[in-house]
Amino acid sequence: MTSRRGTALRVGPALVVAGLALVVAGLLFPPSAVASRAGAPVTVGSADRTRTPLLAYYYQWFQRSSWQRAKTDHPRLGRYSSDDASVIRTHIGWARSAGIDGFVVSWKSSAVNNRRLELLLTEARAQDFKVAVIYQGLDFRRRPLAAARVAADFRLLHDRYARDPAFFRLGGKPLTVFSGTWEYATADIARITGPVRKGMLVLSTEKNPEGIRRLARVTDGDAYYWSSVNPDTNDRHSVKLRAMAETAHRAGGYWMAPFAPGFDARLVGGTKSVPRDDGRTLRTEYAAAVASRPDVLGLISWNEFSENSHVEPSVAHGTQALDELRRLRGVPASASPSVPPASSGAARHEPLGYWPGLLRIVGCAVLLMVSVAALARLRGVRTRRERRT
């Protein structure tokens, strides 16, 4: 019969090794790292299921060199590239933690833009996040693209991307927005949207009720991109949004209401500057957007740094905008992932750079050596005791 002491001696080494293995696993893969790498969704309050969906306009045109032009602020993540999957993953995590349901990504077909859209869709699927597309119908000089080229791009969007499960849907249809519709004739808009509207929504970007009425039969509503309004000086701001919403809804279309935290495009040729006012501008514009009874709220923007309408954590503004959004959306502060301290250098996703990973590796090696030594010692003790008996 085996004695209790003998059993303990046999089980003991296994328990020691198992315990040390758990410690090593904890060092190598702490809970926060696992959640980040796996794209685990951030849990938010139950009210999140019933409130108006919020999408933030998202720009994917950044190279590392882009940050050298017309910027008065920079991201906390550093001067990143839109090809960096870890940056996109972090953006989605931060956005979800503030009650943002998806991104409206700026796009027109090109090898670079298609690659980046596919990357964004992949990361969005992993985190149960949504993506819509705003088609950039104007060129860099604000002139309309050829209607034939736009029509081909919308067909590509419909056939290749809009069926992706990460695509945001209204009434069961994927949502797209056509930026610059005011520069196109109604007949051209009809030729562009006609072949795709059975399978996806195309919202115009008209700037007034008259424009919405003009395109009511060839589009599915309106997404007004109004980032430069100053709610302190424009006393018609709320009235205009409500009038546009009523026009879109009366025509049987959807209404996407805009709001922004502030605006300053003077470095890219603009003349207006709208101060953030410690979050009051964001709160005021959000209230006006909600009051227009939208089908979707359109936040301008996640990362439009040239016009300074960004809410992405930045060097100058920190997390102020996301903190305000979290309160407005009723998301608990505990849902907020950590944000690195301000940095003007290259993108980095841990404040200590490579040191945490290096320390984990060293710690793993040390603990494995200790576990092997402990196992050898326990076996030696067991052997000596067995010889005595």
Description:
By secondary structure, the chain is α/β, with parallel strands linked by helices. It has a single domain, classed as TIM Barrel (Alpha-Beta Barrel), CATH 3.20.20.80. Helix content is 41%, strand content 12%. β5 (173-179), α6 (186-193) and β6 form a beta-alpha-beta unit. α3 (85-97) packs across α4 (111-126), α5 runs parallel beside α6 and α8 packs parallel to α9. It is globular. The two termini are 14 Å apart.
Q: Which secondary structure elements does this structure contain, and how are they paired or packed?
A:
Layout: H1 4-28, H2 31-38, E1 54-58, H3 85-97, E2 102-107, H4 111-126, E3 130-136, H5 147-161, E4 169-170, E5 173-179, H6 186-193, E6 201-203, H7 209-214, E7 221-223, H8 237-250, E8 254-259, E9 263-264, E10 273-274, H9 280-291, E11 296-299, H10 320-329, H11 355-388
Features of this protein?
389 residues, TIM Barrel, nine-stranded mixed sheet, 11 helices
CATH architectural label: Alpha-Beta Barrel
How far is the N terminus from the C terminus?
Answer: 14 Å
Number of helices in the DSSP assignment: 11
CATH class: Alpha Beta
Please identify which CATH superfamily we are dealing with.
Answer: Glycosidases
Overall outline: globular
Share of helix among residues?
A: 40-55%
Summarize model confidence as the mean pLDDT. Answer: 84
Q: What order do the SSEs take from the amino end to the carboxyl end, as H and E?
A: HHEHEHEHEEHEHEHEEEHEHH
Structural class: alpha/beta
Point out poorly predicted stretches.
1-11, 14-49, 344-359
CATH topology: TIM Barrel
State the total count of DSSP E strands. 11
Beta content: 5-15%
Largest sheet: 9 strands, mixed
